[in-house]
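U., I forgot to send this yesterday:
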Amino acid sequence: MAKSSDFGAFMEKFVLKPSPSPNHLPLAGLTFAVKDIFDIEGYITGFGNPDWARTHSAATTTAPAVMDLLRAGATCLGKTVMDEMAYCMYGVNKHYGTPTNPCAPERVPGGSSSGSAVAVAAMLVDFSLGTDTGASVRVPASYCGILGFRPSLGAVSTAGVIPMSQSFDTVGWFAQDPMILNRVGHVLLHIPDEDPIQPSKIIIPEDCFHLSSIPVDRTAQVLVRSIEKLFGGQCVKHVILGDYVKDQVPSLQHFMDKGNEYQEDNIPSLAALSSAMRLLQRYEFKNNHAEWVTKVNPDFGPEISERIWDAIKVTGEKTDICHSVRTELRNALTSLLGV
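Result:
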């Protein structure tokens, strides 16, 4: 199908219908698309690159996340374009083209789950599946003006999903309608259809909101008023997240940049956290894919090529510290949230 009619969102179109059921299914009548990183039986998982597709066989099973949606009554309409090897956030693909952002056609759609976001924004499907390692659902959702959800690590099975960096890889999803986003979430997270639980605590990271160019009276204060209206003000807790992370994650000192410590547009501890995340991400990507990259020497787009070869060259130095950071941060956030 021409790009003008499907916005360049799809890699491959096909129809996978749900199995007939005598029961009412939660996603009956809805359609969805799947990022070309998920296995679907009988189809090659292309990972955004033709050399990958050429050197891999068709999947023999379907990813559990996709199966959950089919069993819940949804119909799959195909696989969507993605950034090569999921290693970019712009949504640009040298080989298959850049999906057109329906919200802003002159701008990129965001990635790496670009086609999945565009398919929803263009109303080609009701919802779609993507993956999010470093914001690959959240960024294209924002760019395309739709809703995107990244659950906690491990909340949705990543079996049958090509790994990028297992410490951060998550299955996420897109929708325009918040009710559909909610229904899909109940299926993927295996949550019973019950009334929402009253939250005991909602954290407002004041320093993070102050980084935005949008005044806090249009962001944080709107959020707080909405929370108070829904749940009352007793559950709202304001924190300076950067200070809390700095105090509770001592291993971050190995990644702190002293030159950024007093910049107004920077939270040093969170910048250090980002540096640790990127290092571990590169190291895990190398372990997953260096053998294939060095053997095949695939054709990558320029920016993708630079990122991938930088990852291939990374050493294991400081990765043990990265794991310490992750453990300390998990404990700190568990304590902060009271879970």
